Amino acid sequence: MTLALQIILVLTAVLMTVFVLLHKGKGGGLSSLFGGGMQSNLSGSTVVEKNLDRYTILMAVIWIACIVALNLIQAFAG
């Protein structure tokens, strides 16, 4: 169980890093490489950006849940 949570923790950390880097910042971000830059100039918020926000938040929630679960397992194991 602990190993599975640790693997999920690492995977969500990597995915969350990628998703954060894909967000549009002041300079356009990496999302402009995939066609997000042109559409974001035409409208305020695209569907792609909204979905990217949702995926980033989901990864953060899973990441935090894994940290809490691993701490509870460590606290009650000994």
From TrEMBL:
Q: Which GO terms describe its cellular component?
A: plasma membrane
State which residue ranges cross the membrane: 55-77
Q: Name one GO molecular function term.
A: protein-transporting ATPase activity
Q: How does it sit in the membrane?
A: Multi-pass membrane protein
Query: Which keywords label this protein?
Result: Cell membrane, Membrane, Protein transport, Translocation, Transmembrane, Transmembrane helix, Transport
Q: Which Pfam families match?
A: SecG
GO terms for biological process, alphabetical = intracellular protein transmembrane transport; protein secretion; protein transport by the Sec complex
The record's InterPro entries line, in alphabetical order, gives: SecG
Q: Where in the cell is it found?
A: Cell membrane
Write down the PANTHER family for this protein, in alphabetical order: PROTEIN-EXPORT MEMBRANE PROTEIN SECG
Please report which protein family the annotation says this sequence is part of. Belongs to the SecG family.
Function, in words:
Involved in protein export. Participates in an early event of protein translocation.
Query: Could you tell me what this protein is called?
Result: Protein-export membrane protein SecG
